[in-house]
Amino acid sequence: MRVVGARDLGARVVGAAAMIALLAGPAFAQMPNINLIPEVVSKTQEEKDAEAARDKAYKESLRKIPDAKTSTDPWGNVRTTDAPKTSAPAKPRTKTGSTAN
Fold it and tell me: What is the pTM of this model?
């Protein structure tokens, strides 16, 4: 049995610490940066007025959009409005696949 010297033990400790640091780096990078005590910033009266003007302009622009009354079916002009005609019932086939006459 081999006796571990102080130099070997120190090298193992440093190596183990380096491995832990290398493995912890990517895990630490994935953690979100959360500020638990955010600074409360209130808006000035000018900022409030500018926001109200933007909201008003946005609502007015929404009123200008016309309502879609027409159909948006691209194949609407191709299809006929007539009901599909029913075809005659298929003739029964024999085991060879030909129709019976």
Answer: 0.32
| pLDDT the model gives residue 56 | 96
Residue 65: pLDDT above 80? Answer: yes
Sequence-distant (≥ 6) Cβ neighbours of residue 99 within 8 angstroms: 91, 92, 93
The residues near 100 (Cβ < 8 Å, ≥ 6 apart) are 91, 92, 93, 94
Q: How many C-beta atoms lie closer than 10 Å to residue 31's C-beta?
A: 7
Task: Report how far residue 72's alpha carbon sits from residue 4's, in angstroms, rounded to the nearest whole number.
Answer: 82
Token readout for 45 is 């009266």
Sequence-separated (6 or more) residues with CB below 8 Å from residue 92: 99, 100
